[in-house]
Design a protein that fits this description.
Length: about 550
C-alpha cells in the first residue's frame, strides 16, 4: 500500500515545498518496472509500484498463448546487474518459453524482495502534473490517487493490445481471445472450429499449436510474413554450463551489437559471393534459425535492397518447397516488401501446418474481414462459422501504453495530444513539458534485445537521479529542441535501413498497423550499441539535451 507522507522512510528532495506521498511511482512490474523499482529503492527513494496484472511479469504475464516464447536466445534473456543471479539462472530451452521467462521474473522479484513495492491488479488510468506543487498525482482505475515527485513508466514497447474494431462482436455466440490477454487457465481447442486473425510473431507461434488440437483452423492472413524457423531445442548441461562460464563476456559482447544480440557480423555482402555460395550461406542461416538468418548470413540485408531481395527469394523458395498446395504456398509468399521491414518472426512448423487437412488459409488482403456474425466472421463475399476467434492482431506499439493513460504535464498539456503527429522524446527517456516523468525504453529508444535495452536504460536513469541528488537539482525533462533533433535522427536512420519501407505493409515500427495513428517511426534503428554510447556521452556532458532545474 501507499506509504503515508509522515511514515516515509526517506524524503527525496522535492522540487516544491509540498511533501508527496512517495518519492517515485513506477508503472509496470515486468523486466523494466522490477529493476527500476529495485534501483530507486537502493537510491533511498520511497517507491510505489502499480501493476495492472495480478502478479509480476508484464508482457510475460499476459502473453501466455500456446507457443509463446522469445526470439532472443536464452543466454541474453536476463538482466546482468547482479552477476550471481545472471550466472545462476538457467533456461531449459534455446529460446525460452513464456512459462520460463515468467519464472525468471518471479525469481527476480523474490530474490530482491520487489513484490512488496507493488500494488497488483491496479491499473493506472492517468497522471497529472501540478504546476504549483511540482508534484505528480497518479490516478488508478479504481479511484486511487498517489502524489509523487517522479513518475517512471515501465509499461513496455508492445503491451497495449490492438483489437481491430470489427462490428458485431457482441452478437457472436462464441469466444473471442486476444493473444496478448490470454486466460490464465489453458484453453481447450479440441473439437472446436477456430479462427486465427493475424500472422505476425504471435500468430505464427500460436497457429501450429492450435492446429494440433482444433477440429478445424482457419488462418486469416492480410500480409504474408517472412517466417524463418526458430530451430528451438532443449539445452544440454554442457550448453548451460558454457553460458555460466561466459556470462560476463556474453553481456559485453551483446552491449556492442547493434541489436544487442550475441552475433558476429559476417563481414561479407550478399552480392559479393557467387550464387552457389550465397545459397549455401542462406541454407546455413536457415539451419541455425531465428535471427541468425538476418544477422549472420550477410552484413547488408537491411541496407541494400538487391541483397535483401536475394534473402526474400530464398525464403519464398523454402515456402514453396514446404507447402504442398501450390495456391496456398503462393498466398503465403510475401511479395513486394523487404525482409525486415516488418519485424521478422521466427516459428516452429509454421509453413508445415498448412499441409494439415484441418487447416485453411484465407487471404483477407483483397477482401477484408468486415464484421463478426452470430456464428463467426464474414467479409464481403463469404462467412465462416467458428467457435473461437483468436485475435493475434498486435499492439498499439511504443506509444499506446502511454497515450492510453491520461497523462497531463505542465500547463495541463496532454501527452496524447503532444504526440498526435508522432512521439517526441530525448532518447526515449523524457519528453519536454513533462517534468520528472521518466520512461524506461520509451518511444524512440532502440528496438533490440529488450532486457539489454531495459538494463541500460534503468542504469542511465539511476545515474541521472544520482547526479541530480549530488548537484541538488530537483526536476528534469527533455529539452524541446534536443527531442526534435533526436526524433529527426531516428527518422533519418530508419530511412537508411529497410525499416521505414515497412510503412506500406503496416509495420508497427512506423505506427502503420493502427488506423488513425500517426505514421512516424517510433523505435531507433541506429544500433543499440551506438545508442548506449550516445546515452553515456550525454551523461558525461552533464546531461546535455535535458533541462535539469
Ligand atoms: P503484429 O506483428 O502487429 O501482427 C498483427 C497481425 O494482425 C498482422 O498479421 C496484421 O496484418 C494482422 N491484422 C491486424 N489487423 C487486422 C485486420 N483488421 N484484419 C486482418 N488482419 C489484421 O503483432 P504480433 O504478432 O502480436 O507481434 C507484435 C510484436 O510483438 C512483434 O513484432 C514482436 O516484436 C513482438 N512479439 C515477439 C515475439 C517473440 O519474440 N517470439 C512473439 C510475439 C510478439 P498486417 O500485417 O496486414 O497488418
Amino acid at each position: 500500500m501507499v506509504t503515508s507522507p509522515t511514515s516515509r522512510p526517506h524524503a527525496w528532495p522535492t522540487p516544491g515545498d509540498t511533501l508527496p506521498d512517495v518519492d517515485a511511482v513506477v508503472i509496470g512490474a515486468g523486466f523494466a518496472g522490477l529493476f527500476m523499482a529495485h534501483r530507486l529503492r537502493e537510491l533511498g527513494l520511497s517507491v510505489q509500484g502499480f501493476e495492472s496484472a495480478p502478479a509480476v511479469g508484464g508482457t510475460w504475464f499476459w502473453n501466455r498463448y500456446p507457443g509463446a516464447r522469445t526470439d532472443s536466445v536464452h543466454s541474453i534473456y536476463r538482466l546482468h546487474f547482479d552477476a550471481e543471479f545472471a550466472r545462476d539462472w538457467a533456461y531449459s530451452e534455446r529460446y525460452p518459453k513464456q512459462e520460463e521467462v515468467l519464472a525468471y521474473l518471479d525469481a527476480l522479484a523474490d530474490r530482491f524482495e520487489l513484490r512488496e513495492l507493488f500494488e497488483f491488479s491496479t491499473e493506472v488510468s492517468g497522471a497529472t502534473y501540478d504546476d504549483a506543487t511540482r508534484l505528480w498525482t497518479v490516478h488508478t482505475a479504481t479511484g486511487g490517487r498517489t502524489t509523487a515527485t517522479f513518475v517512471v513508466t515501465a509499461v513496455g514497447l508492445l503491451s497495449a493490445p490492438h483489437t481491430p474494431p470489427f462490428p458485431g462482436a457482441e452478437e457472436f455466440a462464441g469466444t473471442v481471445l486476444h493473444t496478448s490477454r490470454w486466460p490464465e487457465q489453458p484453453v481447450d481447442f479440441h473439437g472446436k472450429r477456430v479462427a486465427v486473425v493475424g500472422t505476425g510473431s504471435s500468430g505464427i507461434q500460436v497457429v501450429p499449436l492450435i492446429a494440433e488440437q482444433a477440429e478445424h483452423l482457419t488462418v486469416f492472413q492480410r500480409t504474408p510474413n517472412y517466417v524463418v524457423p526458430i530451430q528451438n531445442r532443449v539445452l544440454d548441461t554442457a550448453e548451460i554450463e558454457d553460458v555460466r562460464d561466459r556470462i560476463a563476456s556474453i553481456r559485453d559482447h551483446v552491449r556492442q551489437h547493434p541489436f544487442a544480440m550475441p552475433f558476429v557480423d559476417p563481414a561479407r555482402n550478399t552480392l559479393d559471393v557467387t550464387p552457389d555460395e550465397r545459397q549455401r550461406i542462406f541454407e546455413e542461416g536457415w539451419a541455425q534459425g531465428g535471427f541468425h538468418f538476418l544477422f549472420e548470413t550477410f552484413s547488408d540485408l537491411q541496407l541494400d535492397a538487391r541483397a535483401n531481395e536475394e534473402a526474400c527469394d530464398f525464403i519464398r523458395g523454402k515456402i514453396r518447397s514446404i507447402v504442398r498446395d501450390a495456391a496456398t504456398a503462393e498466398l503465403l509468399c510475401p511479395q513486394g516488401y523487404a525482409y525486415g521491414s516488418k519485424r521478422p518472426p521466427a516459428g516452429t512448423n509454421y509453413y508445415e501446418t498448412f499441409n494439415r487437412s484441418n487447416v485453411a488459409l484465407v487471404d483477407v488482403a483483397s477482401e477484408p474481414i468486415e464484421s463478426f456474425t452470430a456464428t463467426g466472421l464474414r467479409n464481403a463475399t463469404q462467412s465462416w462459422d467458428v467457435d473461437i476467434v483468436v485475435l493475434a492482431t498486435g499492439f498499439d506499439a511504443a506509444t499506446g501504453s502511454l497515450t492510453r493513460m491520461d497523462v497531463r504535464g505542465a500547463d495541463g498539456v496532454s501527452l496524447a495530444d503532444k504526440w498526435a503527429e508522432g512521439p517526441l522524446t530525448n532518447k526515449g527517456f523524457s519528453t519536454a513539458d513533462f517534468p520528472n516523468f521518466l520512461m524506461v525504453t520509451g518511444p524512440l529508444a532502440p528496438f533490440a534485445n529488450i532486457p539489454t535495452c531495459i538494463e541500460e536504460n534503468v542504469e542511465w536513469l539511476t545515474g541521472l537521479l544520482r547526479h541530480m541528488r549530488e548537484t541538488d537539482l530537483r526536476e528534469v525533462q527533455a529539452d524541446a529542441e534536443a527531442e526534435k533533433a533526436w526524433a529527426a535522427h531516428v527518422d533519418e536512420v530508419a530511412h537508411i535501413t529497410v525499416a521505414a519501407a515497412g510503412e506500406k505493409v503496416n509495420t508497427w515500427f512506423a505506427g502503420a498497423n493502427i488506423d488513425g495513428k500517426a505514421h512516424a517511426i517510433n523505435v531507433y534503428f541506429g544500433g543499440s550499441n551506438n545508442y548506449f554510447d550516445a546515452c553515456d556521452a550525454t551523461a558525461a556532458a552533464d546531461y546535455e539535451g535535458f533541462v535539469i532545474a
